[in-house]
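User: Hi! I have a protein structure encoded as tokens and I'd like to know what sequence might fold into it. I'm fairly new to this, so please keep things simple.
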């Protein structure tokens, strides 16, 4: 959904990149700093300090925007940097969803652990369906994103789950189920786009 606002975020990214490029921190170091913050967020998440976890996760997600912006502003954008950023993004998703899995949310229709497992699987499939289409040469060049939820959208929903958990685990369970459906739909949309091409 945020994909359609990318022009606004590109302009914002340029301003952010210029500001943060004045610090002597490389884009890859920014990525690793974001990952470090996610690990701290994970610690608070599994200890059910949801509000603190959510606040730290906001900072980690902000850094995810900074690393690419700094790379473009300093003309240090590279294939290697983009690869590192993608790998770190997948680790971040895995770590935070694992944190949800290790909590005791109430069940909703099916065991909540199953919903969270499906959320993790769908989240990984969103990325894999896109990269596999390029690897197997189903498409001439790598597909753009698309579908219901891009990476930032998924991160916002996961953040919402964490924050909602601070006042109601039941409502957080409902949000987990909704997010799982949306992410699975996105993975299916990308699969269809690949085979149609």
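Assistant: Happy to help. Inverse folding works backwards from shape to sequence: for each of the 197 positions I chose a residue that suits the local structure. Here it is:
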């Amino acid at each position: 959904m945020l994909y359609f606002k990318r022009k606004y975020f590109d302009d914002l990214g340029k301003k952010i990149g210029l500001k943060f490029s004045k610090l002597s921190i490389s884009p890859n170091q920014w990525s690793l700093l974001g990952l470090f913050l996610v690990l701290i967020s994970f610690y608070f998440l599994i200890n059910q300090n949801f509000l603190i976890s959510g606040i730290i996760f906001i900072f980690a997600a902000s850094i995810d925007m900074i690393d690419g912006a700094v790379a473009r502003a300093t003309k240090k954008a590279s294939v290697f940097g983009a690869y590192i950023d993608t790998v770190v993004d997948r680790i971040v998703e895995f770590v935070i969803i694992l944190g949800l899995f290790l909590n005791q949310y109430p069940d909703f229709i099916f065991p909540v652990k199953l919903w969270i497992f499906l959320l993790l699987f769908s989240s990984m499939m969103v990325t894999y369906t896109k990269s596999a289409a390029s690897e197997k040469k189903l498409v001439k060049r790598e597909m753009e994103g698309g579908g219901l939820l891009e990476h930032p959208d998924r991160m916002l929903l996961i953040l919402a789950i964490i924050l909602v958990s601070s006042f109601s685990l039941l409502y957080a369970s409902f949000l987990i189920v909704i997010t799982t459906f949306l992410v699975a739909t996105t993975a299916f949309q990308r699969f269809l786009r690949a085979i149609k091409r």
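A useful reference point when you look it over: The radius of gyration is 17 Å. Feel free to ask if any position seems puzzling.
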